[in-house]
Amino acid sequence: MSDLLSARAQMGTSLAFHIIFALVGIGMPLMMVVAERKWYDTGDEIYHELAQRWARGTAILFAVGAVSGTVLSFELGLLWPGFMRQAGGIIGMPFSLEGFAFFTEAIFLGIYLYGWERISPRAHIIAGLLVAVSGAASGIFVVIANAWMNTPSGFRIVNGAITDVDPIAAMRNPAALSQTIHMTLAAYASTGLAVAGIHAFLLLRDSSNAFHRRALTIALLVGGPAAVLQPLSGDLAARQVARYQPAKLAAMEALFATEQGAPLVLGGWPDIEQHTTRAAIRIPYGLSLLAFHDPHATVRGLDAIPEDEWPNVPVVHWNFQLMVALGSYMALVVFLAAVAAGRREAGGGKREAGGGKREAGGGKREAGGGKREAGGGKREAGGGKREAGGGKREAGGGKREARGGKRGVSGIADQKWLLRAIVVAGPMGFLATEAGWMTTEFGRQPWVIYGVLRTRDAVSPMPGLVVPFVVFTLLYCFLGWVVGWLLYRQILHSPKISEQVWANVTVGKGEEGRGKGTA
Amino acid sequence: MISLPDILAGVIVVALNAYVLLAGADFGGGVWDLLARGPRRDAQREVIAEAIGPVWEANHVWLILALVVLFTAFPPVFAELGTRLHIPFALVLIGIVLRGSAFAFRSYGGEPSGVQLRWGHVFAIASAVTPLLLGTALGAIAAGRLGEAGSGNGNGFVAVYVRPWLAPFPISVGILAIACFSLLAAVYLTLESDERALQEDFARRALAAQGVVIVCGLAALGLARSASPQLAQGLLKASSAVLVQGLAALAALIVLVALVRRRFTIARIAAAVEASLILWGWALGQYPYILPPDWTIDGAAAPAATLELLLGALAVGAVVLFPSLLYLFRVFKAKTMSDAVP
Questions:
Q1: pLDDT digits (tens, 9 = 90+) for B125-163
Q2: How many CB atoms lie within 10 A of CB A95?
């Protein structure tokens, strides 16, 4: 394994590991604050328990995210000194701002976790909100720095040297807006649907559990709108890539020849030798329409780019297709859940038995739908408008649901086929995010700063980089295993409270719940 | 005349200073967790965990702040350090990862059990090893053994990537760092418990740590002579550095007296001053170099536009940061600041 490959593998592993925790660090605090707010509003002790559990989960994941983030900031220098020498002065700014956002997040998370009994409810919920906001802000700053690597701006190169550095212009690089929107939505969608998936799974075993019903509602409220809006932001990002990163777009779409009215290439095997993509489904004019919103637009293919500047086409193409397929499935499931929640509310309470019977057939249909989705790939962008409408409706449904208490969610929780569909969607957000990062990072190669600095010129001169790669990979495997085990324990010990039993419980139980939170 | 780069280099030292006083004490807490002995062993560990719990993550961020200011304002120095100190920094990272996650897992892993205890050991050992390596890295920087002109002793892997830091002077600085952090932790911990016997435990530990600090400090000064004439010149001749070191010695004396007389509040303040002065003694000792002998602060600085913006961002950030930090410490450390228990 060459040093360059080792360094890339180590950075990639570190990022792939950290991203999961970054996503959760953005999404979880919002859910825990919503649960706490509902506890104050309704006095329902289950929401209190929920807020505390999610806070504990956040604590574990934030701790691992904080240290794996530290590893990354060091690795910029340990693995890519050539990059930092050039880029530090230009994009250090967003990293510094990220430092402050991270600081705020850590401070208020400490206050939130350990302050249940030390500060007023109002101060406590504000602390939680600040965690949520600063978590999102730090994600945004880091993604701005990454966007700069894709579409560098804010400097000039004169005789090979960088001059006229303008850090603000660098932060306002062309990719910054679309990438930050796409990633922030990804955080809410992934976390929301992952948590929804877990509680949907537990509801399948114990469908009247009041704890999981409430958890499912909040998770869908946080993740749902983002999942439905994500295809739209994907469209924005793709059009931006088409304009500023032609090589990446060509690889994403496995488009070898520059074409006017280019087709959309779904699936298939990109054959680098023959410069063609075999066994793919081609939708005429599809790519021109999506990338430039004009069926006759010219799309630059890989033939417009020197072959030594090509990214790894199959890797980029397949990761992109995977991301789109997973994202489309998530948007569809959320859309169906919103419809179910809305219909249930309109129709009143008697559908339970029918829902139960339909479940078996629904399950099969669901599996078939999943396949169609994977093959169907990019339908999502075309259906964008319809989905945006769905998003609004779902947000409206959400509001009604919050007011109506238990009624809205029972439309989802009592339909087993829908719960199954949500379980399947659970891990998809994380997978889609990973695939999206693979797409954008592999798609930029061989450059670390697109068109300016090649990755091979940025790597550390230290020999034997395979050693840190192996060591850190083992460390991450170990950490991942332990985190999984801890979360599994947290989830396994879920309270067994059915809706009916809960209705009879008196308020006196609250004290016990409070005691647990500080353990 | 103080230049813009000087100010930003100063900000890095300030961030490191905060890291030493806050995160340093958390590391030191891990050392005392490792060395917990006697009839009150579990009580000691409990006080340590309670003291660290709410604040350690915020304390850790000071290192990130120092790092991002370094790579924004002095990119070539960051690149050089990342290359030459790859090995100790990678080990530091492993320590940070294990320590942070071990602490979280111990806190959230459920009932006390064998597994919890093992996490406790991971936490404690990582707490001891990490400052040793961080101090060693700092020592290697101070000794001027990194960089083109600095290495100057062969081209092999060991000569370039190992020997600059695996040498007597850097290691003495590493041990000094652990001793300092342990001193800070023990002195702080005297005020974290209301129980007399525990206070006595930590006071005795603080005295022992202070002894090690003094021995290591003198040893490091002695070794500095042979390690780098330039550093010795800076540490022992430059008037500002000598003054700072004199004050550090005075603070050390006050710590000893205050500890013997069990005046813990005074001991706490004096120990913080002592540790800070040791750090500033190093910084002033190598001024105007940021990475001797290749890079001066001015020579390594990023373009002025970047520095100005960074300084502005730091000022705005400070407006958000300091009230938040104050609030954090008021919520959790009010008890130890005064007797008013919330």
A1: 888 899 999 999 999 898 887 766 545 556 778 878 888
A2: 23
Nearest to A77 among B54, B78, B306 (CB): B78
A126 to chain B, any CB pair closer than 8 A? The answer is no
ipTM of this complex prediction, to 2 decimal places: 0.89
The SS3 assignment for B320 reads helix
Contact A60 B104 (CB under 8 A): yes
- Domain residue ranges in chain B: 4-322
Question: Which of these, A229, A130, A141, lies nearest to A188 by C-alpha position?
Answer: A229
Beta-carbon separation of B303 and A84 below 8 A: no
Taking the C-alpha atoms of residue A89 and residue A448, their distance in angstroms, rounded to an integer, is 16
DSSP B161: I
> Which positions 168-197 of A are in contact with B (Cβ < 8 Å)?
168
Among B57, B90, B305, beta carbon nearest to A167: B305
- Could you give the C-alpha distances from B150 to A79, A354, B142, B146, B300, in angstroms and in order? 21, 79, 11, 5, 16
Domain B4-322 has what CATH class? mainly alpha
Residues listed for chain B: 342
- Cβ-defined contact of A60 to B110 (cutoff 8 Å): no
pLDDT by residue (tens digit) across A424-473? 999 999 999 999 999 999 999 999 999 889 999 999 988 899 999 999 99
Residue A3 sits at the chain B interface (C-beta within 8 Å): no
Q: Find the helix or strand (DSSP H, E) in which A449 lies.
A: strand A447-449
Alpha helices in chain B (DSSP H): 4-34, 41-52, 56-73, 75-84, 86-108, 114-142, 148-151, 157, 168-189, 196-227, 229-236, 239-260, 264-286, 297-300, 304-337
Which candidate from A66, A67, A88 shows the least CB-CB separation from B72? A88
Decide if pLDDT at A352 tops 50.
no
User: CA-CA distance, A514 to B303, in Å (whole number)?
Assistant: 54
For A498, left (φ over 0), alpha (ψ -120 to 50), or beta? beta
* Whether B84 contacts B160, CB under 8 Å: yes
Asked if B161's CB is within 8 angstroms of A114's CB, the reply is no
Strand partners, A266: A281
**Option in B90, B94, B100 nearest A66 (CB):** B100
The candidate with the shortest Cα–Cα distance to B88, out of B126, B56, B134, B129, is B134
